[in-house]
UniProtKB/TrEMBL annotation:
<dbReference type="Pfam" id="PF15511">
    <property type="entry name" value="CENP-T_C"/>
</dbReference>
<dbReference type="GO" id="GO:0007059">
    <property type="term" value="P:chromosome segregation"/>
</dbReference>
<dbReference type="GO" id="GO:0005634">
    <property type="term" value="C:nucleus"/>
</dbReference>
<dbReference type="GO" id="GO:0051382">
    <property type="term" value="P:kinetochore assembly"/>
</dbReference>
<keyword id="KW-0158">Chromosome</keyword>
<feature type="region of interest" description="Disordered">
    <location>
        <begin position="1"/>
        <end position="23"/>
    </location>
</feature>
<dbReference type="GO" id="GO:0000278">
    <property type="term" value="P:mitotic cell cycle"/>
</dbReference>
<comment type="similarity">
    <text>Belongs to the CENP-T/CNN1 family.</text>
</comment>
<keyword id="KW-0539">Nucleus</keyword>
<feature type="domain" description="CENP-T/Histone H4 histone fold">
    <location>
        <begin position="22"/>
        <end position="118"/>
    </location>
</feature>
<dbReference type="GO" id="GO:0046982">
    <property type="term" value="F:protein heterodimerization activity"/>
</dbReference>
<dbReference type="InterPro" id="IPR028255">
    <property type="entry name" value="CENP-T"/>
</dbReference>
<dbReference type="InterPro" id="IPR035425">
    <property type="entry name" value="CENP-T/H4_C"/>
</dbReference>
<dbReference type="GO" id="GO:0003677">
    <property type="term" value="F:DNA binding"/>
</dbReference>
<dbReference type="GO" id="GO:0000776">
    <property type="term" value="C:kinetochore"/>
</dbReference>
<protein>
    <submittedName>
        <fullName>CENPT protein</fullName>
    </submittedName>
</protein>
<dbReference type="InterPro" id="IPR009072">
    <property type="entry name" value="Histone-fold"/>
</dbReference>
Length: 129
C-alpha cells in the first residue's frame, strides 16, 4: 500500500519573537566611578548591586519627572529651566545655592564653558543661545 506523505513539524524557536524591548542602561563602570569619587572608597560587590539598582531607579524617576514638566509646558523638548525646577523641588538648588554654583563645583571646565554664559572680547557671549 502507498504511504501518505506526512509533513514534519518544525519546532518553534524559543524567545526570538517574544523579546522584551531593551532599556538603555548606565554603564556599570560609570556608576562605580561616580560612587568612588563621592564616597572616596571602594565598594563591595553586593553593595554595588544595590547602588546600581538605586541609580537606575533614580534616573528613571528623573526622566519621568522631566517628561511631565515638559509636557505640562506644552513642549516636546526638555529645557534647562525644566531641570532647574526639578532640582529646586529636590532641594538641590536653592536661593543660597544656585544652579551655576553647582555647575562650577561639580563639573569640569569644558562642561562649565558649555553651560554658563561667559563674556569674551569683541562683545561676544559664549555659549550662544
Amino acid at each position: 500500500p502507498m504511504r501518505l506523505l506526512q509533513s514534519k513539524t518544525v519546532p518553534k524557536r524559543l524567545g526570538t519573537s517574544q523579546r522584551k524591548p531593551h532599556e538603555p542602561q548606565i554603564p556599570r563602570s560609570l556608576i562605580k566611578e561616580i560612587f568612588r569619587h563621592f564616597a572616596k572608597m571602594s565598594v563591595a560587590r553586593d553593595a554595588f548591586k544595590i547602588v546600581e539598582k538605586c541609580s537606575e531607579r533614580y534616573f528613571k524617576q528623573l526622566s519621568t519627572d522631566l517628561e511631565a514638566y515638559t509636557h505640562h509646558a506644552g513642549r516636546k523638548t526638555v529645557e534647562a529651566a525644566d531641570l532647574e525646577v526639578l532640582m529646586r523641588r529636590q532641594g538641590l538648588v536653592t536661593d543660597k545655592m544656585p544652579l551655576n554654583v553647582l555647575i562650577e563645583r561639580y563639573l569640569p571646565l569644558e562642561y562649565r564653558k558649555l553651560l554658563i554664559p561667559i563674556a569674551v572680547s569683541g562683545n561676544k557671549v559664549i555659549p550662544c543661545k
